[in-house]
């Protein structure tokens, strides 16, 4: 689908050298300019150009090469061995532990680098968040015997918190660090789902790369859905018979696109081993929501009076995908999936882990859908009398069928996601983590948690069932 050149998704993106100082760091949500939402008509929530693979080695006297080298060493660059999970139940050798300890000691002794030179570019800030958040997770999860509090040293904690303050992001690994800004092109300059490779990886395994790339490919498939959403919202402002027929076509196409996303999701087992994922990849993602016993203390905050100690840090989660949230908002499913929620609910909470521009996109989409509700149009079509500002229509049942098909496609996508979670987390947890009788007694009230700290099975079933409830019955 070609977009009009004046369409907000077709307008120029922000310059990579745009300053983030002062008022310019506040996103203008009063316009529909693409640079206010950082959404591209070709790549959606993924950037239209490959993310930075490295920060400048030295910029205005700051040796950012030290951060890059620390991450590279953790990942086993230049013939070095990768860091290993500190809490591996078996297989952590004395050499592994010594290597982990030596690397963390080097992180403690990093120079205290200022972030001011990075403020000239959103792209450099993204890379800084990526590098520092990955170092953070390597640091925390390579500890063999964590104490009640894991202390993050100032050379890591201070610049990370300062970068996060500028980006309005949490100081922890997020979906954007793992997926949106964690890729490069394998060849040529074409951004194609099959032309991507992963930049950062905890294990260096094909399974981990496939895990991230599956999400990236789903994001790229969903680009067409974003254009259909905006076209539908445009037609909602017209609300006549022609508009209704067009909306019906858009919704039918949307259901097809969501089905394509489901097909891609189901390819996860083709390249990602469930046991390897559960035992060796997933533990690196954990935030403090998952690690209730070991809190993280960010040291050195006295160096900057504006910094505060983080209190809630979830790990990366598919719940942080702006694309899936956008589908929920557009179809009105969020009215059901959030019906028992408040500001602290998981789905609402995950929006704070999204890039700020994408959060504003969702806010704008919701405001557009509130003024002219798609579900209201569908309901009006059933009695053919018109209402809520819409004209009477003859094609109400076709519109209803198209709407329900899109919602049902989203429900099927969530069915597929639940199957993946059962295969990659719930099943392996039952097979690997068999507690003793005494341990079972103490864990009876401790359900299996997602990396975001949720009761995993209950949450996923609830969201899936809420999506089904959004289907409108005759």
TrEMBL record:
Residues 78-100 have a biased composition (Basic and acidic residues). Transmembrane segments: none annotated. One of its GO terms (molecular function) is heme binding. Residues 1-24, 76-100 are annotated as: Disordered. Keywords: Heme, Iron, Metal-binding. Heme b binds at residue 417. Residues 15-24 have a biased composition (Polar residues). One of its GO terms (cellular component) is cytoplasm. GO terms for biological process: 'de novo' NAD+ biosynthetic process from L-tryptophan; L-tryptophan catabolic process to kynurenine. This is Indoleamine 2,3-dioxygenase.
